[in-house]
Amino acid sequence: MHRTAVATATATLLLALSACGGSAAAGDGGTITVTVGYQSKTINTVTAGTLLRSLGYFEKQLNALGDGHDYKVVWQDYATGAPITAQMTAGKIDIGSMGDFPLLINAARGKQLGRPTHLVSVTGYNLRGGLNTIVTAPDSKLTSLKDLKGKKVSTSVGSAADGTLVRALKRANIDADTGIEKLNQQPAVGASALSAGSADALSQFVAWPGLLAYQGKAKALYDGAELDLPTFHGVTARQDFAKKRPSVLEAFLKAQAQATDYLNAHPVAAAEKVAKATRLPAEVVYLYNGAHGISTFDPALKPQLVSALKEDVSILKAAKLTGDVDVDAFVDDQYVKKALGATYAQKLSAAPPAAASEVWPKGADRTQAFASPTALLSYLSAHRDGVRAAYVPDATTGTLWFADKAVWVADGEHLLPFVAPSTAQAYADGHSGARVVTYSEALEAAS
Length: 447
What we know:
The chain is α+β, with helices and mostly antiparallel strands. The chain is built from 19 helices and 18 strands.
């Protein structure tokens, strides 16, 4: 997935991986090949990968250049950001997309190996950090971060999910190196370990927490949005490629903006397209990429995201994955500014859509929004067999979650959803008369 960075990556490994890559942009004669590295199942990079590819917008933009060249786009699909970085620094991939922590490693490796790269746009982001979640097994007795002390926790070292784990444990006064037994595993391996009982908890990035919860294989323990620190995904390009083919990079960013507009205008159709390409449940894709999903899609390099990237450097340095990273030198917004023109300033200042409760009725090509979680529950109680999925925003963080997987609190006439049990209990403890209730009890109360 997008945020996994391999802790043992070395220059030797990078050179070895380069042998399996495609070709970068060819010379001026004949067909010019542009190689794009993406992660199909990292669904918050879809506007620069899975969705963009399915829509064909990049190829159309290249054909419209009218510069006398023929272009061929080679799409290379990877499970993580690390091999994309390896291929880029070997000159085999021109444009890639990955999460914020792997982007920093991309910057560091590029500089180290004399193949500098630049962050040129953003795909999806969450200003509070809701793209990462810590989950436990469905029958786990763990209810808070403090319960993780001495436990086995699976994560991917060098990923933003690991960063969330480290920061969250620190706030709970637990040392991430000595207070838990950290298992450095790929997301799929960690998911299997959680199911097998060889891991007590799993800290991962989109779409793993939502997928496991949807499948009934996990429940949320900690909502990354509690950190209130932005997390995002972005597009990185080789510096030499960008300088040699600026019009090609701008064509890519124009196509990305088109794919973003498509996703925002047709969120259900976009979720279905991504689901078909990735074999992920469309209901899970929509949780993150929907109209009020956990992720907001916007190519603009917002100052809040750049500032967050600078704060992430210390986490990677502490894990000995990078040294200092010059974030200001890595970020290059000239191409996306030119690609988006006058609309860029508007996107730069645009706020994410407000959180809302939604129902996806069976057989429908659009969702239905509700004024409150209580109103949504009232609808669900009357249409128990007619709903494909139902989503509610956490009452404190706004993170969207499946209604039947949320932790509910009854506070007078209000029914409030929470992603994690600790935040639900904290709310109940702080409000006289409020109490945690089951989903069935919440449905009954709303009927």
